[in-house]
Amino acid sequence: MRLGRSAELIAARALTPHCAARRTGIDATRLEAAVGAAVTGPPGGSYDDALFARERGHAVVHLPTAAPPRTGRVHPMTLPAAELAVTTHVGEHDGIEVTYGELGTWVVENAMSVAGPVRRVYVVGPRDTSDPTAWRTEIGWPVFRVA
């Protein structure tokens, strides 16, 4: 686990109720189709605090691009830079809550958590390989560094 600062990211986004994003992945597919070959990095997402506390909230699925389109539910966005505690979850997303728990413990011991969406970057995923042991998901928890 490490502290880091994300860069500002220009992207196309699809705003989705969390249950729909988990169930279908339809907005990610629609997003990839809209951006096409103009992709400049791996897909990611931002997930409301409420999703973890109340299991209801919104997810924003995003895909970096220099030329974000506007079509249907796909719109341009700027994901602002943020101070994050970051770790990498290895493998399938079943059990990702354990990685979140480890990151949360690290945050409590080393930094101050701040309000804001948790970020994920799907560095390697099903779009890259059908082998789930190769999947890598970076999880970024918003923090304020303490001395």
UniProtKB/TrEMBL annotation:
UniProt domain GyrI-like small molecule binding: residue ranges: 69-143
SUPFAM superfamilies on file: Probable bacterial effector-binding domain (SSF55136)
Protein name per the record: GyrI-like domain-containing protein
